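Hi F.,

I've been meaning to write this up properly since the lab meeting, where we talked about keeping a consistent format for the predictions we share between groups. The idea is simple: the sequence comes first, exactly as it goes in, then the structure tokens exactly as they come out, then a line or two of notes. No screenshots and no reformatting. I'm using this chain as the first example so we have something concrete to point to.
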Amino acid sequence: MRDPANGVEVTEGVGRSVLGIVRAMAVAAWFGLVAGLLDLGLTVARVRMMQHGLYRSKSPQVIWMIPVSCVVIFVAVGLMVAVGTWMVRLREPRRCQVFHVVMSGLAVFAVVLAVP
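Output, unedited:
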């Protein structure tokens, strides 16, 4: 059977599940990158407003560490959610809904934590 999205030959069962998990990881990485960049923007704004632009307690490596750590956390949580929904045998539309709700909630939570 061919996957209509990208034309890849997919067998029923495990092959289709693996393709779904790979797509879920891409979506999780995207959510993590967006949340990480928002978190970075809030951190830089806080430093500029409250510490007059001086990174007293923070290293300059914060610029790349915040987005990378968010991506790693989101991919790890996304993998757990994707495998969990696969093990529970949810159907595809419901699986996507659960995954997107969890990722959206995690993104909002990550950005809210950055606000002092």
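Notes:
The radius of gyration is 18 Å.
The CA atoms of residues 85 and 95 lie 6 Å apart.

If this format works for you, I'll send the rest the same way.

G.
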